[in-house]
Specification:
Elements lengths: L1 H13 L16 E2 L7 E2 L7 E5 H6 L5 H8 L3 E5 L5 E5 L2 E2 L3 E5 L2 E2 L18 E8 L3 H4 L6 E7 L9 E10 L4 E12 L2 E12 L3 E2 L3 E2 L5 E14 L2 E15 L32 H4 L8 E15 L2 E15 L10 E19 L2 E16 L10 E16 L2 E16 L8 E17 L4 E12 L3 H5 L1 E4 L4 E4 L7 E14 L2 E20 L10 E21 L7 E14 L2 H7 L13 E10 L2 E10 L18 E12 L3 E8 L35 E9 L1
Parallel strand pairs: 7-10, 27-30
Antiparallel strand pairs: 1-2, 3-9, 4-5, 5-6, 7-8, 9-10, 11-12, 11-36, 12-13, 13-16, 14-15, 16-17, 17-18, 18-19, 19-20, 20-21, 21-22, 22-23, 23-24, 24-25, 25-28, 26-27, 28-29, 29-30, 30-31, 31-32, 32-33, 33-34, 34-35, 35-36
Length: 701
């Protein structure tokens, strides 16, 4: 595997290219809005940030948006539970350490859960900005790994004329059918946008498991926006709806045939190793089975800018119902309603002697309530969060310097509730950053940044004490946990040398009070479900990303994009290492060495591409009580093509995993869905998706 990764880089570095005097600085001058207090360019921002455009997302045919991001940005990975469930990780950190935003509004939807993805319409996103590194200065708690800002598409068109597009796609592996209709209308100062999207799929399949029972889904999304632009600024009012029926896999099988089995009873009558085999017709049906989750997310927000004053206010409601009772299918095991009020106010102060200054305050008020449930993994709670910051930026010739400081306060409390005793606590933290970019020339750029991040423990880490039926995990929290703080150093080098673009980003991240999950093999609280207890210790993560993009003028139709990402996560819990040795040396959910190379031929109105995706064997894992195990390396071959027909139709084809490779990603949760110590074929757990052919049509009107 390492030979392959090396070969990918050598082949790309040997590719010939012609030097020219033209400056390929478009990306450096691209305007960004994430992780900064006012719109700025990539050139002036010292924090590592990557951008994915609408065009790039359109040409990637993926089941969900997070998978499209992981394929585009080195250093970003995902924990998956089937094709439609992906939780983003940045440089080995995820869950409540990666802050996801929708149009600048922090997404709140029980982020601690393993078994659901990000509640957004992938067809309605026009741009994604990813900050790699602590962004607590501008966003407060939960952004110590970075930020993913999903910015909705706001098409522009001829005044007084309706504009629209229709997207339809099909994927062969799980029969996924997706469609989306978007409309926009612009008249004078007003702009209106409407989008309705849906997708459905049956179980996915691979060469090792066949059809994987319990992975079908059905999703519906809606978006409506209205914006007015005036001399004084602008105001936008928007609402979104997300509705997802997602099956819940548990991995139970017949011990001899390895065929999947289904739960038909419960309690003492349910022997997980002797369930009936799933009939073939249920493996290929689009009908959602009785054991599923129903996830809904509603959002209403207003973003307004008046002069130098900016506000963003949002109301969100997340409804999660997980149905895990086969004898009473309409009775949810988990039934949670999370209500959130977000607020964000900023003011750009007058510039004094070239110093740009911004002051702001943001936070949220949140309530969580259980409804008609039988399982209660977390208590009902109230949470109030507030933080204020001050940010400065100044240019000194070729050097742009920026930095700031922030103070956060979070108060959480709950009363006596079932197995949860009352709890009241406040968490406080100081965060900040300082960095600089040095423009060596118009083509060369050097960046350096040091940042301190802050994260208050989430509700499961301090309050959990029960079964999450969708994840098949009993969580045990610890209310004595302290907030996490990290100190991360980043250094980056960017070069745009005519036909060659180079990016090198290195980081070192030290975390105090790092919280992680450890499996308890000897503890079975609910039969058929794993028990995980949260631990706290020091941790260190380090690594980097390297990108090399060739676009030779001598062969102007050829584009070669190559990237390499490497992250090491060290557990610095001395007591655990003394007791368990190397099994406790590393952190969980750390992606392996990853190299990707894409060779693309681009012609007028059409393109074709071949992509090689290589993952090294991951021997750095948290192995105490078999929380994780080693994962073999693998190589995937992908191909794609697309083009524009008659200036109105865009047609795309893509084949992922062309060779139908059987593999398990180390961040695939289904890898650990296994109830037998040994199997006839020597395999354990569930494997990732096999060959998948996709076609997408986009029509503009």
């Amino acid at each position: 595997m390492f030979r392959f990764l090396t070969a990918v880089l050598i082949l790309c570095s040997m590719a010939s290219f012609a030097q020219t005097d033209s400056l390929q600085t478009t990306h450096l001058n691209e305007v960004i809005v994430t992780g900064v207090t006012r719109a700025t360019t990539v050139r002036k921002n010292p924090v590592p940030i990557s951008v994915i455009t609408k065009k790039e997302m359109t040409t990637h045919l993926n089941t969900n948006l997070i998978d499209a991001i992981t394929k585009s940005i080195p250093g970003v990975s995902a924990v998956t539970t089937g094709p439609n469930i992906s939780k983003p990780f940045i440089r080995g950190l995820g869950y409540n350490r990666v802050l996801t935003l929708y149009d600048g509004v922090r997404q709140e939807g029980q982020q601690w859960g393993d078994e659901h993805g990000i509640e957004v319409d992938q067809y309605g996103i026009g741009r994604v900005e990813v900050v790699k590194g602590p962004a607590s200065l501008t966003y407060g708690s939960d952004a110590i790994a970075g930020v993913i800002n999903m910015i909705p598409d706001l098409p522009t068109g001829e005044d007084g004329r309706l504009k629209g597009n229709f997207i339809s796609e099909y994927q062969t592996n799980n029969g996924m059918i997706g469609s989306s209709l978007g409309l926009s209308y612009h008249k004078n100062d007003w702009h209106y946008v409407f989008r309705l999207s849906g997708k459905l799929a049956h179980n996915y399949r691979n060469a090792a498991d066949g059809y994987v029972y319990g992975t079908a889904f059905r999703e519906l999304n809606g978006t409506a926006m209205a914006r007015v632009d005036k001399k004084w600024g602008y105001s936008l009012l928007a609402t979104t709806l997300y509705n997802n029926l997602q099956e819940i896999p548990d991995g139970s099988r017949d011990s001899l045939t390895r065929k999947f089995t289904m739960q038909v009873t419960e309690g003492v009558d349910d022997d997980i190793k002797n369930r009936p085999i799933v009939p073939d017709h249920l493996l290929k049906t689009y009908t959602i089975n009785d054991l599923h989750q129903h996830i809904r997310h509603y959002r209403l927000y207003n973003r307004t800018k008046i002069g130098n004053f900016f506000s963003n206010i949002a109301l969100q409601q997340s409804v999660r119902q997980e149905y895990n009772h086969p004898l009473t299918p309409k009775q949810p095991g988990l039934d949670l309603i999370l209500n959130t009020l977000n607020y964000d106010f900023r003011y750009n102060l007058p510039t004094i002697q070239g110093i740009e200054m911004t002051a702001g305050v943001n936070g949220m008020y949140q309530t969580n309530r259980s409804q008609n449930a039988t399982d209660f993994p977390i208590p009902d709670y109230n949470l109030f969060d507030i933080g204020g910051f001050y940010f400065l930026r100044k240019s000194f010739g070729p050097v742009d310097v920026s930095g700031g400081i922030r103070y956060d306060h979070r108060h959480i409390h709950w009363d006596d509730f079932r197995q949860f005793t009352a709890f009241v606590h406040s968490y406080n933290g100081i965060s900040g950053s300082v960095g600089a970019t040095y423009n060596l020339s118009e083509r060369l750029l050097l960046k350096a940044n040091i940042a301190r991040g802050y994260r208050a423990p989430n509700i499961t880490e301090i309050g959990s004490n029960g079964l999450d039926p969708g994840a098949h995990i009993v969580y045990l929290g610890n209310r004595s946990f302290n907030p996490e703080f990290n100190l991360q150093e980043d250094i980056g080098f960017l070069a745009y040398l005519g036909d060659l673009d180079i990016s090198v980003e290195l980081f070192n991240n030290n975390i105090t009070n790092y919280i992680y999950q450890a499996r308890l093999n000897d503890v079975v609280i609910v039969p058929g479900n794993a028990t995980y207890q949260y631990q706290q210790s020091r941790a260190r993560l380090y690594g980097g990303e390297f990108s090399l993009n060739l676009h030779p003028r001598a062969i102007n139709w050829l584009k070669i994009n190559t990237s390499l990402a490497y992250t090491v996560g060290l557990n610095q819990n001395a007591a655990s290492i003394r007791e368990h040795g190397d099994q406790a040396k590393y952190l969980p959910f750390i992606p392996p060495l990853h190299a990707r190379s894409e060779w693309k031929a681009v012609f007028p109105n059409m393109y074709g591409k071949i992509e090689v995706d290589g993952y090294a064997r991951q021997n750095h894992f948290y192995g105490v009580d078999n929380t994780e195990t080693a994962t073999d390396g693998y190589v995937l071959l992908n191909m794609g093509a697309g083009g524009t027909i008659a200036k109105k139709f865009d047609l795309f084809f893509q084949v992922d995993n062309v060779l139908n490779t059987v593999y398990q990603a180390n961040m695939n949760r289904l890898k650990y869905f296994e109830y037998f110590a040994a199997s006839p074929n020597g395999r354990s757990g569930i494997y990732n998706i096999g060959r998948n052919c996709s076609i997408k049509v986009s029509v503009q009107f």
